[in-house]
Design goal:
- The complex is a heterotrimer of chains A (372), B (446) and C (291).
- Chain A has 372 residues and is mainly α.
- Chain A is built from 16 helices and two strands.
- Chain A has a domain of 253 residues.
- Chain B has two domains: 237 residues, Response regulator (Rossmann fold, 3-Layer(aba) Sandwich); 141 residues, 3-Layer(aba) Sandwich (Rossmann fold), CATH 3.40.50.
- In chain B, 43% of the residues lie in helices and 14% in strands.
- Chain B is built from 15 helices and 14 strands.
- In chain B, the strands form four sheets. Chain B has a five-stranded parallel β-sheet with strand order 2-1-3-4-5. Chain B has a four-stranded parallel β-sheet with strand order 7-6-8-9.
- Chain B is globular and about 65 Å long.
- In chain C, a hairpin with a 2-residue loop joins strand 1 and strand 2.
- In chain C, 76% of the residues lie in helices and 2% in strands.
- The longest helix of chain C has 31 residues.
- Chain C has one domain: ABC transporter involved in vitamin B12 uptake, BtuC (Orthogonal Bundle).
- The chains are: A mainly alpha (372), B alpha/beta (446), C mainly alpha (291).
- Chains in contact: A-B, A-C, B-C.
Chain lengths: 372, 446, 291
């Protein structure tokens, strides 16, 4: 039934010419995409190492201070939702605003498992991720012909309806007061506390970031990104665009659900109003702020947004205003985001160094061979 | 050529943005004077309303964890009071921006004024109070970090003035005495599993009997409800209607979106249901005014009731058409016959100007600070959470600045809601000028 | 549907949504994307007018002039500083422009809250006259002005677009920016005019409508979505599309709660939106190929 796809409708909003325009990070044919990704100086192993170092520094910085713990936890939540939005938004070009619902599913599944069953709480993480993915695939299937503002609008209406359901289904969800004060997560008898919790949160974010980065460079990821630019060409080469899109949406939702589970586990409370539409807009902004080239951009954006909204004491009156202005300015003057700037700077430096070295021994210029 | 130009422009912008972030970021960790000055100048550009907030923030930066007398003076708005020494720090999570701002800002300002007043009158045990503000902008994912931030800044007591109630689990995780200033959801202060939460306002559970008695006194037997479609009101109505169904007949229950711009349809539906009174249950604001504007037009002769919020929102009364609120009855909680209320009125008029209209929100904000003062004094300056909670639990017969004359507040180890009797509630009725006065028909007694 | 009062409400709402829809429509045909900042323009104009009158003791008409001027300037800045650079870079990608104006919507809303306060301000009555009674229905001066003005604006613009050179230019540019550019048409100027008109229309709509239930810094997003739905329902094939769409939406918002209760409104809206989105994304009045 669902196999019928009409490419001219499925991406009606971007009626690109059949001869693709040259794209910076995503090219129409998979092998060229991989090539260009490699050439653009994105080493996935290099980024991973930088992320691990920064993560470790954050854990050291947090020390024994519970405020800093909170900041790291909030940044981890934002990063997971940011990466969740990143997958279909930046890679697939679909702007879905239903992420508050997906994060809530992750949160409520942990809360329900912990408060209503005697099953191990960590099971809630997996159930939440799976349930979110299923919800996203169903919603994606229903809206498969939509793109742009049409898709954003319908997913926005869906998220509102979902929140209103959470409020009214008080038998399951506890209504407006939500579910709180349930038992802590224990992993085979071990209950992780503060420090262990933030170490786990940081590890989770880095693992997700790395996995998505690998995916991005895999043939699947390249096809997905090509689909964003020229759906007709991808369709013509025998790949089902709608299927690809559904997988991206489901995967993104699962990642966001992990964020919801993480937050609920740490605070041991979830309410219908915990994950708001505002958070979803922030998540969209994270990728723009940090840089769209890789998922690490969304993660960097999450850290920046936590810094801007929570840790800027002089601007307690206008945290959101500051975020909105910074996002707009970055979009206009530095479209590659903060990481893009860093990368450009790093590459310039590298080429200067290489130029000097080449004077001695001529060597190949290609960036590492991390994919070999 | 043009390319180069746009690149340098980009770099300039980016540099500015980075500098901004860097300046702000560093001020949170270091305690350099420059950072504090930067904070102060950023704030100086803002509106007058925001500048009081900013001065608190600037003082917080200057003070950091080890505070000085100078920074305390900054908090007090420059008042040279006799209070001196190391300040007692109170943290407040107040949504001065975001969707909760309209409800939070008035009470937050009164908390600030009261802190200044206490400091100018000798402080607490001779030492000043200092207020540090956090703001989660009604985004629940930020609440844990904001509460932890306040604790990190050295707060010994937390206040919450927000659009939505803070979940009990979060209150307990702070490990600090935590008082909700104007919130009416008593969940946060109820046993079991509550050590730290306290509530001042008349809790929701007490509203139903008062409304039942009010309907009876007004000879209302059939009530039509017009509710706003929000989580808060869904919850409030759920609690109220459990009891209300026994004392009046609910002939209609209509809901409409909270951001409605037209309520003709639901009110036209209500019109045919033969209700003696229409009861608008909303969290106040434009929805409530729109409802009464439309009712004045379509059902001018029906009796009109409201919940509570609008009586506390002088800014919102201006939205109503001429006389549209005339006759509306609801919970108000301020009675001019109460001497404490008169005192509060004088204090706030001196502080904000003769035109200022105090509400129950102001009274509860004032009492919140005074109760903290009491708690610290009776713990003899011991600021450990256990000592403060124990001290709070000994409070009895504190004369409230709201409620009927002689109304008092008290806590005990098993009761963390300050409510001591139904006369904490004052029924008010709006007059021709859209201003509430005590309702002559019925007042709850203790 | 025999109650005239309900029809007055539906028409008032419908005219507002229609005007917002028209503001969308102009940018849609000129620049090829949905300018969601329309909602922000409307709330900015309403809020600024009320703020100047209530807080700064301006008299009404200078306040309106200032507010509309500011809104038009903001709309022009949207094109010059935000959309044009982003579209040039993204080679016409709809999503990039959409996201950047969404960020702009946030900036305007947050800034308005910061500057003009977060409480709802009363909208200003344009004429100091009592509500008039027409055949059993009461109608306020502002609602009357809005309904009449909306129809007048639609008529006028429909004529202008059909008969004048500027109108033909707008349609030519809208069909394809690059082709129009190649033909030497003043694409930039036409697009800028579309944005300025868009800001003016949204501003007028906002300041007239804000007397219904007040206006606050957070009104913009909801209004933006209503205007978008009006375009989707009516379709962008014909300039009358947004007006029809707006009135249909206004009727839905009044008659659905009247017949089925308030809980039904959201569901019906979701169903209608989903139906139009998936079955007829081009709207009721589809764009026909012009030869």
């Amino acid at each position: 039934m669902s196999t019928e796809v009409s490419p001219e409708h499925s991406r009606a909003a971007t009626p690109g010419p059949l001869t693709p325009a040259p794209a910076p990070s995503a090219a129409p044919n998979p092998s060229a995409g991989r090539e260009s990704a490699r050439r653009s100086g994105v080493h996935d192993k290099g980024s991973l190492m930088v992320a691990v170092v920064i993560g470790a520094l954050l854990i050291v910085w947090a020390g024994n201070n519970s405020y800093r713990y909170s900041l790291v936890q909030t940044a981890a939540l934002y990063a997971l939702i940011g990466v969740g939005v990143y997958i279909p938004f930046v890679m697939g070009g679909s702007l879905s605003l239903a992420y508050a619902a997906y994060a809530s599913i992750g949160g409520y599944s942990v809360a329900l498992i912990a408060s209503k069953t005697s099953l191990p709480v960590w099971l809630g993480w997996f159930i939440g991720a799976a349930a979110s993915a299923v919800a996203a695939v169903i919603l994606g299937q229903l809206t498969r012909r939509l793109a742009g503002l049409y898709l954003a609008c319908i997913t926005f209406l869906f998220a509102q309806a979902f929140q209103s359901w959470l409020n009214s289904a008080s038998g399951i969800t506890g209504g407006q007061s939500g579910i709180g004060g349930f038992r802590a997560t224990s992993i085979f008898g071990w209950v992780p506390h503060h420090r262990a919790q933030i170490v786990m949160a940081v590890v989770l974010v880095i693992a997700v970031g790395y996995a998505v980065d690998r995916m991005r460079l895999s043939p699947w990821g390249v096809t997905l990104r090509a689909m964003r630019e020229v759906p007709a060409a991808v369709e013509a080469s025998g790949v089902r665009v709608s299927m690809l899109n559904l997988v991206a949406l489901g995967f993104g939702a699962a990642v966001a659900a992990l964020g919801g589970s993480l937050f609920t586990t740490v605070t041991s409370v979830v309410t219908p109003g915990t994950f708001t539409l505002n958070l979803v807009f922030l998540a969209v902004f994270m990728a723009l702020l940090g840089g769209q080239a890789t998922p690490w951009g969304a993660i960097a954006g999450a850290v920046l947004i936590v810094e801007l909204t929570l840790n800027v004491p002089s601007l307690e009156t206008s945290g959101s205003l500051l975020v909105a202005i910074v996002v707009l300015v970055v979009m206009l003057v530095a479209p590659t985001g903060v990481l893009g700037i860093v990368n450009t700077g790093r590459r310039r430096l590298a080429s200067v160094v290489a130029d000097r070295r080449r004077a001695d021994t001529p060597i190949d210029q290609s960036d590492g061979d991390s994919l070999a | 050529m043009t390319v180069r130009h746009s690149k340098s422009l980009r770099l300039a912008f980016l540099a500015t943005a980075t500098l901004m972030v860097a300046a702000c970021g560093s001020s949170s960790t270091s305690k350099t004077t420059t950072a504090a000055t930067a904070a102060a100048t950023t704030a100086a550009g803002s509106t007058a309303a925001a500048s009081t907030v900013a001065s608190t923030a600037a003082a917080a930066v200057a003070g950091g964890s080890t505070t000085t007398a100078a920074s305390a003076a900054g908090t007090a708005g420059g008042t040279a009071g006799p209070a001196s020494g190391k300040p007692f720090i109170i943290g407040i999570n107040a949504d001065t921006t975001g969707p909760g701002a309209p409800y939070s800002v008035p009470a937050f300002k009164t908390v600030q004024s009261t802190v200044d007043l206490v400091n100018s009158q000798g402080g607490v045990l001779g030492r000043p109070l200092k207020l540090v503000q956090g703001n989660d902008e009604s985004d629940a994912t930020k609440t844990p970090a904001v509460l932890a931030q306040l604790k990190d800044k050295g707060a010994i007591f937390l206040l919450s003035q927000q659009g939505a109630a803070t979940p009990n689990a979060l209150i307990q995780s702070t490990g600090l005495p935590f008082m909700t200033v104007t919130g009416v959801t008593a969940d946060a202060a109820m046993p079991p599993n509550n050590t730290y939460g306290f509530v001042i306002a008349n809790p929701l559970t007490q509203w139903a009997p008062t409304f039942c008695a009010s309907f009876k006194a007004a000879n209302v037997k059939k009530v039509a409800i017009l509710a706003e479609d929000s989580a808060t009101i869904k919850y409030l109505n759920g609690v109220l209607l459990k009891t209300m169904n026994n004392c009046v007949e609910i002939v209609a229950q209509e809901v409409a979106p909270i951001n409605s711009s037209d309520l003709t349809a639901p009110i036209s539906r209500i019109k045919g249901d033969g209700a003696d009174a229409v009861w608008v249950t909303s969290s106040g604001g434009p929805f409530e005014v729109l409802a009464f504007n439309t009712l004045a037009q379509l059902m001018p002769s029906v009796q009109k009731f409201t919940l509570a919020s609008i009586a506390n929102e002088p800014d919102i009364w201006k939205l109503a058409n001429k006389g549209a609120l005339n006759g509306v009855v609801g919970l108000g909680s301020l009675n001019d016959a109460n001497v404490q209320t008169q005192k509060l009125r004088e204090i706030l008029k001196a502080d904000r100007g003769a035109d200022f209209v105090p509400t129950a929100f102001d009274a509860q904000a004032y009492d919140a600070v005074m109760i903290i003062k009491y708690a610290i004094e009776h713990a003899n300056g011991d600021t450990s959470p256990q000592a403060l909670v124990a001290s709070m639990e000994t409070m009895s017969a504190y004369p409230a600045s709201f409620g009927a004359p002689g109304y008092t507040l008290s806590f005990s180890p098993t009761k963390h809601t300050a409510f001591s009797g139904e006369c904490g509630i004052v029924m008010v009725q709006f007059d021709q000028t859209n201003t509430p006065k005590a309702w002559p028909v019925y007042q709850p007694s203790c | 549907m025999d109650q005239p009062q309900l029809w007055v409400s539906a028409l008032t709402q419908g005219s507002f949504f229609g005007l917002l829809g028209l503001a969308y429509y102009l940018v849609l045909i000129g620049a090829g994307f949905f300018n969601i900042a329309v909602g922000a323009y409307a709330s900015l104009a309403g809020l600024l007018t009320s703020w100047l009158v209530v807080e700064k003791d301006f008299s009404l008409w200078p306040a309106i002039a200032i507010a509309l001027a500011v809104t038009v300037v903001v709309a022009g800045a949207t094109e010059l500083l935000v959309v044009r650079p982003v579209q040039r870079r993204g080679r016409g990608s709809e999503l990039a422009a959409l996201v950047s104006v969404t960020a702009l919507l946030f900036v305007i809303a947050q800034f308005a809250g910061f500057e003009f306060g977060y409480t709802t301000l009363p909208g200003q009555q344009l004429l100091d006259i009592e509500p008039v009674q027409i055949g059993g229905a009461i109608i306020t001066a502002n609602a009357l002005i809005m309904i009449v003005l909306t129809f007048a604006i639609f008529l006028l613009l429909a004529m202008l677009i059909r008969t004048t050179r500027a109108g033909r230019l707008l349609r030519a540019v809208g069909d394809s920016n690059p082709v129009a550019n190649m033909l030497g048409l003043p694409v930039h100027r036409v697009r800028l005019i579309a944005f300025l008109l868009c800001g003016l229309l949204a501003g007028v709509a906002g300041l007239l409508f804000s007397s219904q239930a007040g206006v606050s810094s957070s009104s913009g997003l909801g209004w933006a979505i209503s205007g978008f739905l009006a375009v989707v329902i009516g379709g962008a094939g014909n300039i009358i599309g947004p007006l029809i769409g707006g009135i249909v939406l206004g009727m839905l918002q009044i008659f659905v709660p009247y017949y089925w209760g308030g809980n039904a409104t959201n569901i019906v809206l979701l169903v209608v939106a989903a139906a139009f989105f998936s079955l007829r994304p081009q709207g009721a009045f589809a764009q026909r190929v012009r030869v």
